[in-house]
Design goal:
The chain has one domain: TIM Barrel, CATH 3.20.20.140. The chain is built from nine helices and eight strands. Helix 3 crosses helix 4. The longest helix is centred in the middle third of the chain and has 18 residues. The radius of gyration is 17 Å and the shape is globular.
Length: about 260
């Protein structure tokens, strides 16, 4: 049993499944993926994300505003809390800092991040953190806002081992996507080798970042099996052990 800890089901192209999300989820289940976290990236489609989770027993949801999303008005802490109280919402995010694209401006991004952490603490729900080229500021804000009270996950991790260590010290899990399978991702693979299995999650981030050898194609949850098999080689363990431990990590973090 494997868990896709970060996926955007509402953004997947369902043409290959005649528009049937149930068929896509069945394909994933056939490859051993039995739980999926559908992650929100904007508030305009938050209810769509929640509706998908409520429709399918295998799916849970999160709500949040991606750091690179441009909006006319920033959500308040109270609005995030209200939205996240919907049934099957297990986390706040994704949120964080992205200095690679920096579409929203550093100050706006940082304040948005802080509001998400504050909402998560009020709700006692974990945070899904996106951090790209922003190691020090991400860690500083997590510490200043006392994010260790709820912990969370560093999603699609591509930063340094030093950042992974610091995040784990705050109670966070480290999640790896299909990037870890790329032939040019040797530095990320080395970090993945060092992260203790008990602090590790995996994800597809579908429809983005399909793993090798599907790189460049639309990603889907059933490709999580390929990521898991690659990770077993990095971690020198069996697929059964890897699946069991990472599933328990997911259930422990998201309380579902």
């Amino acid at each position: 049993m494997l868990v896709d800890s970060h996926c955007h089901l509402n953004l997947l192209n369902l043409d290959a499944y005649a528009g049937d999300l149930n068929a896509l989820l069945q394909r994933a289940e056939q490859r051993g993926i039995t739980r999926i976290l559908c992650v929100g990236v904007d508030l305009d489609h938050a209810h769509e994300v929640i509706r998908v989770a409520q429709q399918f027993a295998a799916v849970v949801a999160s709500v949040g505003l991606h750091p690179s999303e441009k909006v006319a008005r920033e959500p308040t802490v109270e609005e995030l809390v209200t939205l996240a109280q919907q049934p099957k919402v297990v986390a706040i995010g994704e949120t964080g800092l992205d200095y690679y694209y920096n579409k929203t401006g550093w100050d706006t991004m940082a304040e948005r991040f802080r509001r998400h952490i504050r909402a998560a603490i009020i709700l006692n729900k974990p945070i899904i953190v996106h951090s790209r080229s922003a190691e020090q500021d991400t860690l500083r804000i997590l510490r200043e806002e006392k994010a260790e009270q709820v912990s969370g996950v560093m999603h699609c991790f591509t930063e340094s081992w030093e950042m992974a260590e610091a995040a784990m010290a705050l109670g966070f899990y480290i999640s790896f996507s299909g990037i870890v399978t790329f032939k040019n991702a040797t530095a990320i693979a080395e970090v993945a080798k060092k992260v203790p299995l008990e602090r590790l999650l995996i994800e597809t981030d579908a429809p983005y970042l399909a793993p090798h050898p599907y790189r460049g194609k639309p990603n889907e949850p059933h490709y999580l099996r390929d990521i898991a098999e690659h990770m077993t080689h990095l971690k020198n363990t069996t697929l059964a052990t890897f699946a069991d431990v990472t599933t328990q990590n997911f259930l422990r973090l998201f309380k579902c």
